[in-house]
Amino acid sequence: MVATNRIEVKKTYKLFINGAFPRSESGRVFEVLSKKGEFIANPCLASRKDLRDSVTAARAAQHGWAKATAYNRGQILYRIAEMLEGRAEQCAAEISATTAITPLKAQSMVSEAIDRWVWYAGWSDKLSAVTGATNPVAGPYYNFTIPEPLGVVVVTASDSFIDFIDAIAAAVVSGNSVIALVDGGLSVPAMTFAEVLATSDLPAGVINILTGSLDELAPWAASHMDVDGFDISAISKKKRTELKVAGAENLKRIYSADGKLTPSRILAFMEQKTVWHTIGV
Amino acid sequence: MTFEYAPALESRAIVTIKPKYGHFINGAFVSGKKHFPTINPATEEILSHLSLGSASDIDKAVAAAQKAYTKTWSKLSGKERGKYLYRIARILQERAREFAVLETLDNGKPIRETRDIDIPLVAAHFFYHAGWADKLDYAGLGQSPQPYGVAGQIIPWNFPLLMLAWKVAPALATGNTVVLKPAETTSLTALLFAEVCQQAELPDGVVNIVTGDGSTGATLVNHPGVHKIAFTGSTEVGKKIARAIAATDKKATLELGGKGANIVFDDAPVDEAVEGIVNGIFFNQGHVCCAGSRLILQESIAEEIIEKLKVRMAKIRVGDPLDKNTDLGAINSREQLTKIQELAAVGDAEGAQRWSPQCNLSEKGYWFAPTIFTGVTQAHRIAQEEIFGPVLSVITFRTPQEGIDKANNTPFGLSAGIWSEKGSRTLWASQQLRAGVIWANTFNKFDPTSPFGGYKESGWGREGGKHGLAAYLKNGKESGAK
After folding, report:
1. B101 and B322 in contact (C-beta within 8 Å)?
2. Are A251 and B482 in contact (CB < 8 Å)?
3. d(CA B398, CA B395)
4. How sure is the predictor about A2, in pLDDT bands with cuts at 50, 70 and 90?
5. Any A CB within 8 A of B482 CB
6. Torsion from C-alpha of A97, A98, A101, A103, nearest 10 degrees
7. Which residues in chain B touch residue A136, judged by CB atoms under 8 angstroms apart?
8. Cβ–Cβ of A248/B247 closer than 8 Å?
9. B430-447 b/e with 16+ CB inside 10 Å = b?
10. pLDDT tier at B482 (50, 70, 90 boundaries)?
11. Which H or E element spans position B86?
């Protein structure tokens, strides 16, 4: 029998770095309130050092993730969908608690997010067939072009749970490792989603999630020399210029989505490699 | 008794160079206010005087390109656009020898290369892209992908007309109009290309050419009427462009520097590898962004390869670029020669061992003997920085993984070569190398159907092939997208 006056055991919201759930090294948190002003949680306010630690973890994990077969990566992304299905109710409740979104709408958003994982999962083993090429060069050479993952990609999310999922999934499916920077109230369902990742057979460090302030973290990501790609979809137009200027230092691939669900978003964080091989007896 | 090659000079009579050139704007040649000399780097002879493009010249050229875009070029069907490109390809083939001689005079590269490589590839690029003009719906960019409008294109001096073709052909095929800024030291073939546009009756303003220096290029990049930037050149300038357009919606493709690794495994076909190494670094005086400027040798065969390489290098003929026997021509400019000399001196100072064959270099003109440095380590500047000259840095490795790690250890990622007889090893190495173009048992091969471009700090985007079209088109409607 459960007593009705039972005190609920509330969750401590932490970060998700290298497959673990550490607090911010800075010890900082920020308060997330409901739309009625009630206290919801104290997520971590991630620091530059947390970002740097995430990049180190992401870099270490990337080679193995890219080397995994496309079939294997597809199954792991599908597994994320399976696990998110089990947490759908919790995520939806957190979305509606922290935003003006109605519970019903929040549920359909999470359902859509699950379906997006299924959609992206299917792309893993079709990208090179759809976007690669064999090139008929004028000479005795076998010449082909295939897409390869870029490396370490930072993505951003601030309001929409679906945008948050899209940004991560589009970057990770091809074999990139990802650091998702999440702003404000979205941090609450985002960290529940991190628990989904932790039970999805995803290797540690392939997806890392930092909560806090995009204004604070995005410039550090833009200037980080070991970050190869940066999805600035959640950054306001006004603030994009300084990030692009900083990103030019290592010619980061900087991309912002236009709201369409398209494989172009996956390709934005891939390189095309062309290989020539001699033909002869 | 020794056998010497008698000179076999290509005649320059086929070329007429005017004493002075204007810009090519809206279908006509328009003189600029100021002029600067352009020289033959093999003799330091002044060939002509070129107009120094000012802000108002760029304004006029961009206005002409905008007008041509809205009034004529964007109204034309792909089929008709394609026919203009086919015409250009054919005229280039007809006038190929004239272009080859002029390119050699202006650039300093051997006539053998301009005649057999540069100019044939130029025609091939136009012919290839001509065929795309009415087939863009099949390029994998959705239905009816749309051009950007006016493309601002800035090209380097190492392959002057070929880089023009890489830029202009896809831009026109996809329905953009262009303002092209050739390199300061090598504009003559671009200006001759303007005549080809006239002969092809290309509508006025579709192709505009403004000559000048870096400031002319910067003005073009910053012009609000330009919607798309295509640049080939140094990583340093590429980064400047990336910053310059950060506050705009301009798209950019950047083909930048490289420090290509040529990895030779212990099972490589030795003689072919030596030829490939020579072609990798001494082709075009090493003025090649994708040059194989780092030779990464498996330790067990290093001595044998270096010995054979020196024998082969001693047979490289350095001299008059118009001589059909010449392998290595002139360095393109005094400025570039100084840069090569300085970096080579750094190689000496850092403790690497320099070797060059005996060469009788002319007093006049800019020359640098083919050079290798052995005993180079990863930390040496000649292992990290692009020299852009006939200078090869030799590094050794023991295990295949070490070879790959060393090959990947620069901020660049443009090209790499793999020499091995073992197919599985070659494919493994091609997967591990972080470079956009990989040549297995060959090097420095180019083709219009084959995408070219770099990873990391070697740039953004691809040129050539199906993938190169994406640089000049906004995605069309995707049937599957939600």
Report:
1. yes
2. no
3. 11
4. low
5. yes
6. -20
7. 449
8. no
9. bebbbbbbbbbbbbbbbb
10. low
11. helix B78-94
B438 has a chain A CB within 8 A of its CB: yes
Quickly state the pLDDT bin for B328 (edges 50, 70, 90).
Answer: very high
Active site annotation includes B255: yes
Residue B328 is given by DSSP the state B
Helix, strand and coil percent figures for chain B, each rounded to 5: 40, 20, 40
Mean pLDDT within B292-301: 98
CA proximity to B70, closest of B168, B136, B149, B169: B149
Q: What is the pTM of this model?
A: 0.96
**For residue A115, which of A160, A63, A68, A169 has the smallest C-alpha distance?**
A169
Burial (CB count <10 Å: 0-12, 13-18, 19+), residue B42:
buried
Q: Is the dihedral of CA B234, B239, B243, B245 positive or negative?
A: positive
Contacts of A274 in chain B (CB under 8 A): 436-438, 450-452, 465
Q: Compute the nearest-CA separation of A25 from chain B (Å).
A: 30
User: Beta-carbon neighbour count of residue B143 at 10 Å?
Assistant: 12
Check: CB of residue A177 under 8 Å from CB of residue A255. no
Which domains are delineated in chain A?
A: 40-127+151-273 (3.40.605.10)
> Is the distance from CB of A149 to CB of A66 less than 8 angstroms?
yes
What pLDDT, on the 0 to 100 scale, is given for residue B12?
96
Chain A residues with CB-CB distance to B238 below 8 A? 251
Separation of alpha carbons B393 and B382, rounded Å: 7
Percentage of the residues of chain A whose pLDDT score is greater than 90: 95
Both tokens of B256, joined, read 């930048």
User: Average pLDDT, stretch B352-370?
Assistant: 96
Q: Per the CB < 8 Å rule, is B475 touching A131?
A: no
Mutate to test the interface with B, among A118, A145, A242 (most CBs of B within 10 A): A145
| pLDDT above 70 for B139 | yes
Question: Nearest CA to B205 among B85, B64, B24?
Answer: B64
Question: What domains does chain B contain, in order, with CATH numbers?
Answer: 23-256+458-474 (3.40.605.10), 261-447 (3.40.309.10)
- Answer whether B108's CB lies under 8 Å from B285's CB: yes
- Residues B65 and B70: their CA atoms lie apart, in Å, by 9
Listed by number, the residues of chain B in 372-401 with a beta carbon closer than 8 Å to a beta carbon of chain A are: none
- Asked if B411 and B457 count as a contact pair (C-beta separation under 8 A), the reply is yes
- ipTM of model: 0.96
- Please check whether residue A233 is in contact with residue A260, taking contact to mean a CB–CB distance below 8 angstroms: no
Pick the catalytic residue: B103, B255, B386, B457?
B255
Q: Is B148 on the interface with A (CB under 8 A)?
A: no
CB-closest option in B124, B451, B460 to A274: B451
Reference A144, options B230, B431, B354, B243; nearest CA is: B431
Q: Could you write out the DSSP letters of every residue in A137-184?
A: -SSSEEEEEEEEE-SEEEEEESS-HHHHHHHHHHHHTTT-EEEEEEEG
pLDDT at position B481 is 54
Question: Angle A161-172/A187-198 helices, nearest 10 degrees?
Answer: 40
Q: Output the furthest CA–CA distance in chain A (Å, rounded).
A: 83
Cα–Cα distances in angstroms (integers) from residue A126 to residues A120, A129, B8, B223, in the given order = 10, 5, 55, 40
- Rg value, chain A, Cα: 20
CA distance A48 to chain B (A): 23
State whether residue B242 sits within 8 Å of chain A by CB. yes
User: What distance in Å separates the CA atoms of residue A42 and residue A74, rounded to the nearest whole number?
Assistant: 34
Helices (DSSP H) in A3-102: which residue ranges? 48-67, 70-86, 88-98
Over chain B, what is the mean pLDDT?
Answer: 97
Residues of A in contact with B239 (CB under 8 A): 248-249, 251
Nearest CA to B26 among B204, B220, B225, B211?
B204
